[in-house]
Design goal:
This protein has helices at residues 2-6, 9-30, 106-119, 130-139, 148-162, 169-179, 185-194, 199-207, 221-233, 235-238, 240-254, 264-276, and strands at residues 62-64, 70-72. It is mainly α. The chain has a domain at 106-276. It has a two-stranded antiparallel ribbon with strand order 1-2. A hairpin with a 5-residue loop joins strand 1 (62-64) and strand 2. The relative contact order is 0.08.
């Protein structure tokens, strides 16, 4: 039977085709090329060229921008806006009291000295602040707070006013303490820091007749405390104002032992203030 198959040409042809096909598939499978290996070489970034002034130029005649470009000349400088916190032009910035006639009445000379201080508030430092002008307008005239919120808002305005270093603030501060029912340590400290320019604002509250609904004249602690503190600190600048106006008034009040005119609390405060001043 095998002999008959081998003698059959058709069978032999089919067998040859099968063998050729198997051999072809084998070689195609084994000859597939391997995937090529990729090699990556890191590339360093090109260095950014350093901007340099052109030949013949110097950096004093130009400047380098952040993007590396060189620019000839300089940009126009923009000065910050001027802060309106300076003394008005032409005012005295240091005290220069006019000469006093030795034959002049000392009380009259003291009031002339007081007038000089009133007209030259910036002679002891301080600045003219436009913000202080706005704050004073908001706080004045002095009155009692409407409610708790009004009181809180007022305290914030007062604190800001005290930071302005403007001697005109003394008028608002003493009014708020005496008539506005508002007192705070920062207000007392600010009046002392303002110094002699605060005195012309405070003295009217020492000399006015205010009974506060009682049978006696009452003078607020807000008057005695700053006047005595300023008197100790600026005794020489106040001169006759301290001796013939402030202390004289304190002594008048302190002498009212029977409280015929001044209330007991006011008399006690006057005596305490005299003690601070060494009297």
């Amino acid at each position: 039977m095998l002999k008959n198959l081998l003698s059959n040409r058709i069978f032999i042809g089919i067998l040859v085709l099968i063998i050729c096909g198997v051999v072809s598939v084998y070689f195609l499978r084994t000859d597939l090329p391997e995937e090529p290996i990729k090699i990556y070489t890191p590339v360093e970034p090109m260095p950014k060229p350093k901007a340099e002034a052109p030949i013949g130029e110097t950096e004093q005649d130009g400047h380098v921008h952040e993007d590396g470009t060189w620019h000839e000349g300089t940009h126009e400088a923009h000065a910050p806006p001027a802060v309106p916190n300076t003394s008005p032009p032409g005012v005295a910035t240091t005290p220069d009291f006019p000469s006093v006639d030795p034959n002049e009445d000392p009380v009259e000379a003291a009031y002339k000295r007081l007038e000089y201080i009133k007209n030259n508030p910036y002679a002891w430092g301080g600045v003219h602040s436009e913000r202080a002008t706005e704050l004073i307008a908001q706080l004045m005239p002095a009155s009692l707070p409407i409610d708790h919120n009004d009181s809180d808002e007022r305290e914030l305005l007062i604190e800001e006013l005290c930071q302005q270093n403007d001697p005109r603030a003394a008028g608002a501060l003493i009014a708020l303490m005496c008539d506005g029912g508002t007192k705070g340590r920062v207000m007392f400290d600010t009046l002392e820091a303002i110094g002699p320019p605060a005195v012309p604002y405070i003295l009217p509250y020492l000399e006015r007749v205010n009974t506060m609904g009682t049978d006696w004249i009452q003078v607020s602690f807000a008057v005695f405390d700053p006047l005595s503190r300023i008197g100790v600190r600026y005794r020489e600048d106040l001169g006759g104002i301290l001796d013939h106006i402030i202390i004289a008034k304190f002594q008048e009040i302190a002498a009212d032992e029977n409280n015929e005119r001044y209330g007991p609390t006011t008399v006690r405060r006057a005596r305490e203030a005299l003690s601070v001043l060494g009297r």
